[in-house]
Amino acid sequence: MSSLNMDETYGSLLIGAFFAIFLQGMLTVQAYIYYESFPTDSKKLKSLVAVIWVLDLAHLIFICHAVYHYLINSWGKDAALLQSTEDFDILVVLVGTVIVLCQGFFLRRIRTFSGNNWLAGLLALACLAILGLDTLIAVKLSINKSVTSFSSLGEATIILSSTGAGVDLLMAGILVWYLRKERQSLER
Q1: End-to-end alpha carbon distance in the chain
Q2: Contact 13, 70 (CB under 8 A)
Q3: Higher-confidence residue: 63 or 115?
Q4: Transmembrane region positions (predicted)?
Q5: Taking every pair of C-alpha atoms in the chain, what is the biggest distance, in angstroms?
Q6: Is 70 helix (H, G, I), strand (E, B) or coil?
Q7: Which residue stretches of the chain are H helix?
Q8: Contact (Cβ atoms closer than 8 angstroms) between residue 89 and residue 138
Q9: How far is CA 12 from the centre of its chain?
Q10: How many CB atoms neighbour CB 186 within 10 A?
C-alpha cells in the first residue's frame, strides 16, 4: 500500500463519514422538533420534511457502505482502492435532489413574497441547471470508475459548487429583502 496516501484520501473519507453521521443526528432532532412544534402545518410541508429526511438517511447509508467497501472489504488491495463504487455515483444524485427540494421550498417563498415575480422563475431555472450538472457529473463518474479520473471533473465540480452557492446566497438575500420590507410595513 505504499503507492497510496491513505491519510489524505480514505482517512478523509472516514472523517467525512463521521461528520455525516453527526449531521444526520442533528437533522433527525430538527425534524422531530419541527413535527412537535408545528402540528398544524400542511401535509405537503410535513411530507417535504419527511422526504428530505429519508433522502438524507439514504445518503448516509451509501456513505457508510462506501467507507465499509474501501476500508474493510478492499483493505490491502490497491487496485480495488483506486476504483469508484456505484455508491458514490448515487450519492451525487441524492445530494442534488435534496438541494433542489430545499431550494424549491425557498423559491416558493420568494414567489409568494414577490407576487409571482420573474426572478423566482429565473432562479428555478438555475436550480434545475445545477441538478442537471450534478446528474452529468454522476454519469461521468459511473462511466469512468477510476478514482484518479475524479481530478478531471474539477472544473465541473467548481462550477457546480459556485453556482449552487451563488443561487443560495441570492435566494437568501432576496428573502431577507422581502422580509425586511414586510416588517417595515407593519405597525409595531
Answers
A1: 68
A2: yes
A3: 63
A4: 12-35, 47-68, 88-107, 119-138, 158-179
A5: 69
A6: helix
A7: 10-37, 43-68, 78-81, 86-114, 118-143, 154-185
A8: yes
A9: 18
A10: 6
Percentage of the chain modeled with pLDDT above 90: 35
Residue type, position 60, single letter: L
Q: What distance in Å separates the CA atoms of residue 123 and residue 126, rounded to the nearest whole number?
A: 5
d(CA 67, CA 64): 5
Percent of the chain with pLDDT over 70: 90
Answer yes or no: are the C-beta atoms of 17 and 61 closer than 8 Å.
Answer: no
In this structure, of 15-19, 80-84, 87-91, the range with the lowest mean pLDDT score is: 80-84
Nearest 5 degrees, angle CA 48-CA 53-CA 55?
95
∠ CA(79), CA(138), CA(83), 5° rounding?
0
Residue 2 has a pLDDT of: 46
Pinpoint the alpha helices (H) of 69-85.
78-81
Residues in the chain: 188
In the numeric block, which cell numbers belong to residue 132? 442537471
> Contact, 153 vs 137, CB < 8 A?
yes
Helix (H, G, I), strand (E, B) or coil at 5: coil
- The single-letter code of the amino acid at 24 is Q
Cα separation values, 11 from 5, 70, 171, Å: 9, 10, 35
C-alpha cell read off for 10: 480514505
Residue pointed to by grid coordinates 425534524: 31
- pLDDT bracket for residue 75 (50, 70, 90): confident
